[in-house]
Amino acid sequence: MREIEKKAAQAYGERFDEDPELVASAPGRINLIGEHTDYNGGFVLPCAVDRRVAVAAAAGSGELYSTNFDEMRRLDEARDGSWADYPRGVAWALDEKGYEAGNLRAVYAGDVPLASGLSSSAAIEAATALALDALFGLGLDRKELAMLCQRAENEFVGVQSGIMDQYASLLCEAGSALLVDCRSLEAESVPLNLEEANLALLVCDTRVERGLADTGYNDRRASCERAAATLGVEQLRDAGVEDVSRLSGEELMRARHIVTENARVLDAVAALRAGDFPELGRLMYASHASMRDDFEISTKELDAFVEIAEADGAPGARLTGAGFGGCAIALVETDKTGRLARAVRETFEARSFQDPVFYEFVPADGAEVAR
Ligand code: GLA
Question: Best of 40, 159, 164 to mutate for ligand 1, by most ligand atoms within 8 A of CB?
Fold first, then answer.
């Protein structure tokens, strides 16, 4: 068992004076490329990070405890804006679909940074869904679980996110990124052998609160839908670069990002398959520019990180996730991560930005049940 899984199991034992029946855990994610494309029926290429949410669970009477928040909540209570809404949402979504999951007793422990855009919420949902599936023998596959988790997020928690985060948490494999066609919901692992290429992924959490994230996110979704309607297509997935020129103003900018980003994801997959990391990096920088100029979801901190990475010779860098704050990633030569982090820290300090936090990781396992 991983440390975080042991922590959940141990806390369960201390709290309930018995062993859990199982421990399930699920990772957070970064997205290598393909931002805001998921709800446009397009392509994404996330990978799991080695930070996880673990849940130690057994059939019980609805007690939920979080070691991170040191508080007890109940599964069968109404939405209250707390972490417990995610497990509640998953139980609700299962019930809505007619699956007979019994009641749960569970202890959560996690080391996915909260509210920084690494999808800690999808990790709680995925770990809960997997635990319920295993405990009550529901026999659901990973894709079905991911869709139930998205439903929980959209309809119970009330956040209109796409399918990327839940898919990444449940379907990613170690050493790989996951190409998802968000229309057909087909997914396939694409090898991401960073070590072989002497590269690492450095995550920079700018620690800028994603406070306006919800409004900004919903706003972008609405513009994309308007642009698709103007073009007479179902989703922007169906539009090509030549179509976009029929648009103007904000719709043109938003649609141009989506259409070019979809193409970049497919080019990135081809580059990965060919082991062409310089090309992958070039696509990452192009993606960042498109998010900064056309989709307008970057911040001065995220831009500064990407500029410093480029000046330092990193093969690629871009903001990752929804934007409006949160994290950026850089593809960096293994022996240069420390230097890049120092350079970024110095600039952030000189510009009176928040002190950033860095994580280095290799693509990790998706959700798992460890008994
Ligand atoms: C958030 C959402 C995802 C996706 C990204 C942007 O992480 O939860 O569904 O839309 O933003 O790519």
Answer: 164
Active-site choice (38, 85, 165, 294): 165
Can you tell me the distance from the alpha carbon of 335 to that of 326, in angstroms, rounded to the nearest whole number? 25
pLDDT in tens, 152-185: 999 999 888 999 999 999 999 999 999 999 999 9
Q: Which of 100, 157, 107, 144 is nearest to 128 (CA)?
A: 107
| Contact (Cβ atoms closer than 8 angstroms) between residue 55 and residue 126 | no
Q: Judge contact between 224 and 256, C-beta under 8 A.
A: no
Atom 2, ligand 1: which residue's CA is nearest?
161
Structural domains of the chain, with CATH? 3-191 (3.30.230.10), 199-361 (3.30.70.890)
pLDDT at 371 (0 to 100): 75
What are the tens digits of pLDDT across the range 127-140?
999 999 999 999 99
- Please tell me the distance between residue 59's alpha carbon and the centre of ligand 1 in angstroms: 32
How far away, in angstroms, is 217 Cα from ligand 1 center?
8
What's the per-residue H, E or C state across 250-274?
HHHHHHHHHHHHHHHHHHHHHHHHC
Q: Quick one: angle between helices 142-151 and 120-135, nearest 10? A: 120
User: Would residue 165 show up in a list of annotated catalytic residues for this protein?
Assistant: yes
| DSSP E strand stretches across 131-266 | 176-181, 186-191, 199-205
Ligand 1 centre to CA of 20 (Å) is 33
